[in-house]
Design brief:
Blueprint lengths: L26 E5 L6 H12 L6 E5 L4 E5 L7 H9 L5 E2 L12 H23 L4 H22 L1 H11 L7 H20 L7 H24 L3 H6 L5 E6 L2 E6 L8 E4 L9 E3 L3 E5 L1 H4 L5 E4 L3 E2 L4 E2 L4 E5 L7 H13 L4 H32 L2 H14 L3 H5 L2 H13 L2 E3 L4 H5 L4 E5 L5 E6 L6 H12 L4 H4 L14 E6 L3 E6 L2 E7 H4 L5 E5 L2 E11 L3 H10 L3 E5 L4 H11 L3 E3 L4 H13 L4 E4 L6 H6 L2 E5 L4 H6 L2 E3 L6 H35 L5 H20 L6
Parallel strand pairs: 15-22, 15-24, 22-23, 24-25, 25-26
Antiparallel strand pairs: 1-3, 1-4, 2-3, 5-6, 5-7, 7-13, 8-11, 8-13, 9-10, 9-12, 14-26, 16-21, 17-18, 18-19, 19-20, 20-21
Helix pairs in contact: 1-11, 3-4, 3-7, 4-6, 4-7, 5-6, 6-7, 6-12, 7-25, 11-12, 11-24, 12-24, 12-25, 14-24, 14-25, 24-25
Length: 710
């Protein structure tokens, strides 16, 4: 018979490592409401990883989910059945709404507290010296209150204990249930025998404090809202699909590639697609952190999770719902939050050694106290208190609670953590290498000095109506110019923007379309204004590099551009270490050379020529406008266009590392004090329950400090 050390968990053998894992397979998610600590993780992962119908299984304790890598289309029913056989309730993540109802913990907590206070009030009379019939009367009233309350309020412990006992295993809810039943049973026996002592108040207090601990842990987990949960909240449950001349409301999962959808103003884009209507304004702030509205022209792309501000509009989908960008982001975030970093593995190994050790100590305490005192009842209380107080819940929560809070905070700042160990590695970097073109600077259009103010107003109005980054690059130069009032503004894909100003046609775009020479031109009637193209440093680049240097990081800039261009940008930004005219292999060699000198390098790049360097660096980041290859190679993606995310990510990663180490310290200190107290008989089961709950809550509260500004 195996023994575990926490409510709802059963100790299992070692986790199957690595065999048959395939990162390319899709991930299925199951919700596990009954898992509580590292021993639960070992039990679930040990069972699932031993199966041949899946490639890998990874549990996220904070989110109470297991991500299963397996072939698409597999029925999860066998996995759910197998988990149920070892005492774990499981259901598919897509059914979360049906299982999201209140589990009744709060109601049970309230009833337990009410009954406990009333029984304690009755106990005062007994403690004050009531005897014989008066004492018996108060004991019977206490029994009438306590027994129904204990049966109802302790049901979560009873059901969990029964679910593992019927498969010949033990979990932490078994001794908890035993303690409650023994306290009530002995109290009832004392009452029927007109005894002096009854323990109804202890039974209810134990139930109350254990329930209170679980309720508070649940609230803390909800407060530590994850990036995956935030992303999932962006997807609407139902959408309006156009079928012939009718509009039909269907679940989002039924949306297929090529469907035509109708979106009202203020609704979220459910699936990636192309805008069919004349134009729309969209809000991408939830995905990228950018507050500016974006103009989308007919034929341009819409991404799942964006909000359509003007409507109604129609669009046709380019992928099915399950293949949307939002679904991929959710999967990436879930995998990152369930990471197995060095710290997570340390906690798992410690939990594996720790659980059998404390069970052995508990049994030894029972034997020694029974032989030494002859009081088996007191020895049993000490053994139960030892099992309760030494539950490694705090150790199990030490890493995943911090990882969930940190990745959630980064996502809300516009950064997606997509690598399993990115936070750990980012916290250790001491050198930042940034690509120049596309990361620190970009091509920008500059109007000629002799352009009239009226023409500048027309140019600004046309540029604001364009979604093309080169067209919009002229806006910073025109920030003090009032835009002109235009009519019939239309964006022509691949050409430019046109409109009517004071009855005259105006055009802004490539010269061939405008009808004037070469370059990018503004045409007002017959007048032409040629705009110069130059490299412009991003607005927040200087501040970002200052923050990086203030954090003690050495900053390098590398580029394939000419040395004179690199020198100009480096001088503007104050970068001392410049590497120009380097090809992709040379970029990779530079990263390897720095790391050979003992440096921990984070590489930031956006181009195809940065991919090799991104994969070789200790950690890597890519801007939101980077090529897909660069984003795939990066550990962190800046969903917006703000470089400030680079120091933010490093600062939060460092804060997360501090919180994890603090949590390990808290767990170690707790056990150093709690175990001797329990073994020496100074901790009753009630005190043990209070201490166990407090330790788990303390670790979770400390994890929430990661939300604070580093």
């Amino acid at each position: 018979m195996s023994v575990a050390s926490c409510p709802g968990c059963v100790a299992a053998g070692p986790i199957a490592e690595g065999a048959g894992r395939d990162a390319g397979l899709p991930t299925h998610e199951l919700i596990l409401p009954g898992i509580h600590c590292a021993a639960c993780i070992r039990s679930v992962e040990g069972l699932l990883n031993a199966r041949t119908d899946l490639a890998a299984a990874r549990v996220n304790l904070s989110r109470k989910r297991v991500a299963i890598t397996a072939e698409p289309g597999l029925d999860p029913a066998p996995w759910i059945t197998a988990l149920a056989e070892i005492g774990f309730e499981a259901h598919e993540a897509r059914d979360a709404g049906r299982h999201a109802q209140d589990d009744g913990l709060t109601l049970r907590l309230g009833i337990a507290g009410f009954a406990m206070m009333n029984v304690m009030l009755l106990s005062v009379a007994v403690w004050s010296g009531a005897t014989d019939a008066t004492r018996d009367f108060f004991h019977w009233i206490a029994a009438a209150i306590s027994l129904p309350a204990a049966v109802y309020c302790a049901q979560p412990f009873f059901w969990s204990a029964w679910s593992v006992l019927r498969v010949r295993r033990l979990n932490m809810d078994v001794p908890i249930s035993l303690a409650i039943i023994l306290a009530c049973g002995l109290s009832l026996y004392e009452t029927t025998q007109s005894g002096e002592h009854a323990y109804f108040d202890a039974a209810l207090s134990l139930t109350f404090f254990l329930l209170g601990g679980r309720v508070l842990e649940k609230r803390m987990r909800q407060a530590a809202r994850s990036a995956a949960a935030d992303l999932a909240a962006l997807e609407p449950l139902r959408v309006t699909r156009i079928e012939g001349d009718k509009r039909v409301t269907v679940p989002v999962d039924e949306v297929a590639q090529g469907d035509t959808l109708w979106l009202a103003a203020g609704s979220r884009v459910p699936v990636d697609g192309i805008l069919d209507s004349a134009g729309a304004q969209v809000d991408r702030s939830a995905l990228t952190g950018e507050s500016d509205e974006i103009a989308v022209a007919q034929g341009q792309a819409l991404t799942a999770g964006e909000v359509v501000l003007t409507g109604p509009v129609t669009m046709h989908t380019t992928v099915a719902a399950k293949g949307s960008t939002l679904r991929r982001l959710i999967q990436i975030a879930s995998q990152a939050e369930g990471a197995r970093s060095r710290y997570t593995s340390l906690a798992d190994r410690a939990g594996a050694i720790y659980a059998p050790l404390v069970h052995g100590l508990s049994f030894a305490a029972f034997v020694v106290w029974s032989l030494a005192t002859g009081d088996w009842y007191n020895a049993l209380k000490i053994a139960i208190a030892t099992l309760i107080i030494t539950c490694p819940c705090a150790l199990g929560l030490a890493v995943p609670a911090v990882a969930t809070v940190a990745t959630g905070r980064l996502f809300r700042m516009g950064l997606l953590v997509k690598s399993e160990t990115a936070l750990e590695r980012l916290a250790e970097v001491d050198t930042v290498v940034l690509d120049k073109t596309g990361t620190l600077s970009a091509a920008a259009l500059v109007p000629p000095n002799d352009m009239p103010d009226a023409a500048r107003g027309v140019l600004k109005a046309l540029a604001q109506s364009s979604a093309h980054p080169l067209s919009r690059s002229v806006l910073p130069v025109l920030k003090d110019v009032a835009p002109a009032d235009l009519e019939q503004v239309t964006e022509h894909r691949g050409k430019g923007v046109s409109g009517v100003w004071r009855g005259r046609e105006v055009r802004f775009g490539n010269a061939a379309w405008v009808g004037a020479g070469q370059g990018t031109v503004l045409r007002i009637a017959e007048a032409h204004h040629l705009l110069a193209r130059r490299e412009q440093v991003f607005d927040d680049a200087d501040e970002t590099l200052e923050r990086l240097r203030a954090m003690g990081l050495e900053v390098h800039m590398l580029t394939g551009d000419r040395a004179e261009n690199a020198a100009r940008v480096a001088a503007e930004l104050g970068v001392d270490h410049v590497h120009a005219e380097v090809d992709p292999e040379a970029k990779q060699d530079l990263i390897e050379a720095l790391q050979a000198d003992g440096r921990k390098v984070v590489m930031v790049g956006d181009g195809l020529n940065d991919t090799l360097a991104l994969t070789r660096a200790w950690a890597s980041m890519a801007p939101g406008n980077a090529l897909e290859a660069s984003q795939n190679a990066a550990d962190v993606v800046l969903l917006g266009q703000h470089l400030s995310g680079i120091p933010d990510a490093i600062a939060i990663a460092r804060s997360a590392r501090r919180r994890i180490l603090e949590n390990f310290g808290l767990a170690a200190c707790y056990n150093a004090v709690a175990i001797p107290l329990a073994l020496s008989g100074f901790a009753s089961p009630l005190m043990a329950a209070l201490a166990m709950s407090t330790s788990s809550i303390t670790v979770t509260v400390n994890a929430l400090r990661t939300r604070a500004k580093p």
